[in-house]
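Input.
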Amino acid sequence: MKLDWRLILVIVLSLGLMVSCDKAEEDEDTAFQTLTKYMVENDLDATTVVADWTVAASAVSGNEANYFIVDIRSAAKYAEGHIPGAVNSSYADILTTVEVQNTNDLPVVVACYSGQSAAHAVVALRLSGYTDAKTLLFGMSSWARQFDSWTNSCASIGVGHANWSTGTAPALMSDNDEPVINTNYKDGAAILAQQVDSLLTKGFQGTAAATILDVPENYQIVNYWDLTDYDHYGHIDGAYQVTPGTLKIADNGLDILDPSQTIATYCWTGQTSSMMTAWLSAVGYNATSLKNGANAMIYSTLEGHKWGALTADLPME
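Output.
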């Protein structure tokens, strides 16, 4: 049978188009890659987002007019007393509150009970363009004694615990798979907005110290201290020592994380680990923060980074 050259040409072009489409699909970035590229290009890597993010009560008191203060505690607690000029909102609604009510474009300060859920909120704000947003350090516990949620949270359950170790740090993992982000968006900004919305919808992601101490094998645990402190105080059994500032998109710093596991991060007070947990959640990991950090595990042996109860109150409305 004689083949028509035009038919042959159509077949060749069709095969070429199929190969070209397959190649394009292979080269297309994943949602995680699109998101993280966008975040690096827009200075939203962890080293920037988790930097200079707290403000002490003593710095805010008397200067309240210089900030837009959002109190994300319950309406009942807010009514009992709050920082002068603070507006009451919820964690889930904080973006809307700031967008609508911060008409003077003041730096945002978020106050909660302990400083931990506010840290989550500050990450959501910073990833949404409010790059100068800050957490009230230790929350309203640092403002008035009646709101002290810290003193009863300090404990030493790790001292003598079978899963508190003094061994050397396990070798960091490498070349793990990237997390899968389910999205229909192709644009980095849109994916980030989706991830922030999810972060606010899920609420504060924190786990009690006892839960993680009792079954550390259920988590990939990240000790967010310097190596000298990791060696000095000991650590949760199996915890990886990750020096602050190295867990980031740049330099493949996230390769040590296994997206198939729950990433449990702990620090001294649970406030920095809350920031990292929120940021990791935004880039697609299943993450949780160990509540109250080392203060909930080895308070009696800590030589610094400790909660100290207030001896006086600051003015409230």
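Residues 5-27 form the longest helix (23 residues).
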